[in-house]
Write a structure and sequence with these properties.
heterotrimer; A mainly alpha (291); B alpha+beta (503); C mainly alpha (314); A: mainly alpha; 72% helix; elongated; disordered N terminus; B: ten-stranded mixed beta sheet; four-stranded antiparallel beta sheet; 18 strands
Chain lengths: 291, 503, 314
Amino acid sequence: MTSSFSVIPVPAPRRRNRSWAKFRHNRSAMLGAVIILFFVAVAICAPWIAGQDPLKVGFTAIRKAPSALHWFGTDELGRDLFSRMVYGARASLLAGTVSVLIALAVGVPLGLISGYFGGLLDGCISRVTEALFSIPFLILAIALAAFLGPSLTNAMIAIGVSASPLFIRLARGQVLAVRREDYVQSTRSLGASDLRIILRHVLPNIMPALIVQATIQIAVAIIAEASLSFLGLGLQPPEPSWGSMLNTGKNFMTQAPWMSILPGCAIFLVVFGFNLLGDGLRDALDPRQED
Amino acid sequence: MMGKFVWTAGGALLCAATVCSAAQSLRIGLQEDPDTLDPVRARTYVSRIVFTSLCDKLVDIDQKLQFVPQLAQSWAWGPDHKTLTFKLRTDVVFHDGTPFNAEAAKANLERALTLKGSQRRNEIKSIESIETPDAGTLVLHLAQPDATLLAQLSDRAGMMLSPKSFADGDPSTVSRHPVCSGPYEFVKRVQNDRIELKKFDRYYDAKDFHFDRVVFLPIPDTTVRLQNLRSGGIDILERLNPSDIKEVKGDASLKFNPVAGLGYQEIFFNINNGPKAKDNPFANKLVRQAFQLTIDRDAINQVVGNGIYEPAQQPFPPASPYHNDKYPPMKPDIAKAKALLKQAGFTTVEANFSFGNTTISASIAEMLQAMAAQAGIRLNLRPTEYAAMLSEEAAGNFQVDMRGWSGRVDPDGNIFVFVTCDGSLNDGKYCNPKVDELLKQARTVLDVEGRKAVYGQAQDILQQDLPKFYIYYQPWPFATRKQVQGFKPYPDGMIRLRGVSLS
Amino acid sequence: MFRLILRRIVVAIPTLILVSMMIFSLQKILPGDPVLAMAGEERDPAVLEFLREKYRLNDPLPQQYLAWVREVAQGNLGISLRTEIPVTILIAQKLPVTIQLASMAIVFSVLIGIPLGILAAVRKGTRSEFGINLFALSGMSIPNFWLGILLIMLVSVHWRLLPASGFVPPTQDFWLSMKTSLLPAIVLATAISAYLLRHTRSAMLEALRADYIRTARAKGAPEWSVILRHALRNALMPIVTLVTILFGELLAGAVLTEQIFGIPGFGKLLVDAVFNRDYAVVQGVVLCIAVGFIALTLLADVLYILVNPRLRNA
């Protein structure tokens, strides 16, 4: 299919190789990637690493300090905190990535349509996006989560939907910039369908910006899930998630500080990793990108 | 010489002022922000705490749950128990200066009975007519004997507002600025932040109240509330988290001041409310009994309650004269539970278990889940947001639920609306006409022993039918700073400030 | 300029209508009967029905919406379903609190973020830039409710330096007011200063690339003058724009911080109202926030154009 358009300058694949090299040499990005891979590994290998059943209650061993038997201590019902933290990585990572995937799935198509076709459609979508932006992100997420009911799935949907305006606006902005480029104009004048142009030419070029934003948004989503759990709206006990462990742990700050300090540290590290990675990706893929 | 005198006098005054200002206000930390401050329409436990200092009522209770005079000096039942005559105090003045008398009392009771949206109407609906032969005498004529009436008049239904303050008929005037006759009068309220009262000097016992200001601060987070107490931000807090008890006891600057309460934590079942009841395994009495036999109330008391969640088997706590020794808390018996389940035709059952998503409820629910699993009862935990849960319960959209009840002085308040066929809180729609008959009868028996016997008969049925069962009695765990002297918590959980001071 | 402002206001109106409709529809989609939630333990059916009639909850949704719009046009935002206090009074009580907190947070962020951002730009590629960047990323990565809890534990309980929660207005006691708002403002400032730092850094980097910088250097101007007088002045605009927008977000979004520190501000009011199904409050407050946010964004754009004469005729 590309043969008849070979005269049209297509973004050269060379840029990608340069980006990869840039990425590899960016210390922050590599550090971020390492952190994330570590947690992903922990989450995947949870059954082998945990060592104890994260759901098993032990009424004689409540709120025990870290020891040889319980590396991270126990919680208010005597469950091993280390195992719960390890399994909790699954919930947090899942919450982060799935929410962003939802946001992308909702936001990018809308943004593409809005930016590409313009006119009344663009006007409507932009008004709706602005309206959603005017409602504070967390409030929107809380309201949606309350509507759907407290659970991890519903929290992910709530966060994803609340974050989609960002991607609508980003996608639209990127499309507006790319729309005027020569190769798009030429392709249009040669009669290619809008859908093909969007999918084969516009989308690949806005990918870098989307990937950067998505990575950063995962960090935001993980904190949002922890916030919702903190308010009682996320993953519910007895299943472990770092956010709900923080919510429970805050009641025992003086007797069992490890119950709150450790999950908080974990959230911090994962989010830090994603932020580092997002930074590195931005430097590698497009150094002139602004926040 | 003169200069020295002025200096010393000034210094003394300054010292006095500092000492005085240190004793001037009392700050109380509440778990929630009170709702409306109109006693006729108020609905929450914490608003009752504010009313205790703000509004006097006809009678009050002592620590033994006996009725004592407040605005009424004495009272007497007529021979057929259908008349209740009060002799009222004549030296009482409302915060706006108008006098309290029988006419004012009558106006208040009529408001409670007739105001649209009044939450008190059901409580005193046995009153047919009110007479005021003179300024100090109030006569209530009842449709039938009502053993619950005095208790209702010791709470919000008996609180007296200045009739001038509600003369305009607009209920929000009262809720925004209630005018009562209690030891403290209303100053201001900032929603979700504070309610301020100041001392009413013309209160008849003003000398027994030692603070110039009382400030109520809603602090929903139990940990933060305790931290405020420890750092001196508040002087008294209510509902200490049981897990903090050890810490408070070990802290020399704090005092732990609990009292056994009137309420309970219960599990109730959807027996006949809508389609969810049809496929609810717990609609079967034997399954309910089996579930109860898996519960280790002592373990819950130890792990979650740290010793203050006294196991409960019946709706009347040990503090109540109606507590029946025939029903001590049951011990778990897994074998018997399995046998009962088998008798009902099951080896395992599964159901959804809903409860409010607070940390304590969640811990209890998780323990129950683990305990019930031992007999093959699989509970799916469904923590639900409070507002949603109420709707679900009313609509019959549940199978097994857990909730708390803050308790009432009169035993009727702890049982009637829950298990009578038309009871407003009978969300499981349990219906046994014999129970209805007994409970209605109990309302008319004024003699304690006689009434206790009637409740005993009802309990015999209910402990078998088991439309719900009880886990523990709600305590009121107060904690105060060491400087707070003379604070005595009452079983109704109210903070009475008579004789309380800061040293 | 005038036309721009006018145009933006006109465009804002459908947005506001959309916002209000979205929030109004919360009533239908959020499970839970607000009247039942209000009733709590007391459940007299007659009272429940009366309350539903009084608050028009039995009317069809569009009718309720129109009635509400009519009231808003008259300046009446309704009353709280729970306490019957008018929403306008609630806003008047809570807004100054959140503004104070937001202002303090912005001040801290500016004091920390901008100088460090400039430093990072100037020392690009060095270890100190790497360090500053990590510091900024850490600030963005800490869950602010966790930080709040830790600070309360340490500063209020352990060291007894500051009150653990609550808020005192400055008119009542200025120093106590500062003490109660210090910790929450620090917690809020942590993330905000990180964003500001990074934004300043990129704005400065952009500014330092310009030609006139090279000219200034060639002319022999001292380095500090080049950085502060020339580059910073041009980098200031995007920074100011961001500060304005951040202020708007702070006004609305300090939900968790207010929850932990018991600050009776906007965020807490809103969250409590959602949980209590106090729809009148939710509608009124979100409308207010939307208006504020739009106004602040407009202000940011106006400032931007004021300083950039090239854009004035756009």
